[in-house]
Amino acid sequence: MKTLGSLLQAHLDGETTTMARLVKITRQDGTVLGLSNHDRDLTVDGVSYRAREGMTPAVLTQISTLKTNDFEIEGVLDSASLLEEDLRAGLYDNAKIEVFLMNWAAPEQGAVKLRQGWLGEVKWVGGRFEASLRGMADLLQRRVGDIYTPECRHDFGDSKCCIALAALTVSGSVAQTLDATSFLDNSRGEETGYFDGGMLTWTSGANAGQSVEIKSWDMNTMTLTLWLPMERGIALGDTYQATPGCGKSFATCRDRFSNAVNFGGFPHLPGLAKILAYPDSH
């Protein structure tokens, strides 16, 4: 239940209102960004909420159950405050989000907090961004502790995996561009599949500093294919660094990286069909 000040309550009870919806985003590095669906900038508690951002909040619903209830916002990347490269670089990952209403004509009446949580998945649709706000109930959907799986539970190169990624990182450059996701590098000599699931970070060119997951590497055609297209395109001579992928399989961990002792899965774990099987007369 939300408690409102008497002046704000009286305003909401009136025939017409002058309410604006504000979204406050606090990044992990402490940077604060304010967005508003109002037609002019607003300043509240020292935070400037920029108008004309093309920000469109979706319908916000409140539920009393513990089911995850996300809130979507979208906007056009046309301002100096919300930059596409910052979003793509992960600067807004797990950013804190606060959504509230206030009377833009009388900010001193206070605000109504509608939702708070963390920034979820960011998607790109026709030059616009779409992001979801993960509420407090989303924490109940997250796995706590380890579970038994045939695949490795560790992230490749983390403290439990114990693989030193720096020693496996290689450098290269684009010999020929195929499209927004694929290019040739005829200097590579790794076996087909070596980089599948790995990470590529551009070190020069229009995409310098951006990282993207590698979909596949084909030694026969010398083709590296990325999972996501590069918005600024891939140009001849662009340089990069890449790390291999592990595929989470025991065979790869053992044969390619000699790291079976740190494998975080249970490769001989019986499947559900085996567990549910029962003896018969045959």
Task: Based on the model shown, name its key terms.
single chain, 282 residues, mainly beta, Pnp Oxidase, Chain A, Thrombin, subunit H, nine-stranded mixed beta sheet, 5 helices, 10% helix
Structure overview:
- The chain has 282 residues and is mainly β.
- The chain folds into 2 domains: 8-141, Roll (Pnp Oxidase, Chain A); 165-262, Thrombin, subunit H (Beta Barrel), CATH 2.40.10.
- The chain has 5 helices and 16 strands.
- The chain has a 9-stranded mixed beta sheet, with no helix packed on it.
- The longest helix is centred in the first third of the chain and has 7 residues, at 6-12.
- It starts with 5 loop residues before the first helix and ends in a 6-residue tail after the last helix.
- The model is unreliable at 58-69 (pLDDT under 50).
Summarize the structure.
This protein has 282 residues and is mainly beta. The chain contains 5 helices and 16 strands. It folds into 2 domains: 134 residues, Pnp Oxidase, Chain A (Roll); 98 residues, Beta Barrel (Thrombin, subunit H).
- Major sheet characteristics: 9 strands, mixed
CA radius of gyration: 25 Å
Quickly give the structural class: mainly beta
Number of separate strands: 16
Question: What percentage of the residues does DSSP assign to strands (E)?
Answer: 25-35%
> What is the architecture of the largest domain at the second tier of CATH?
Roll
CATH class of the largest domain: Mainly Beta
Share of helix, binned: under 10%
Low-confidence stretches: 58-69
Helices, by number, come to 5
Structural domain tally:
2
Which strand order does the major sheet show? 3-4-2-1-7-8-9-6-5
Ends apart, CA distance between termini? 64 Å
Following the backbone from N to C, one meets helices and strands in this order, namely HEEEEEEHEEEHEEEEEEEHH
Global shape: flat
Mean pLDDT: 81
Per CATH, what is the topology of the largest domain? Pnp Oxidase, Chain A
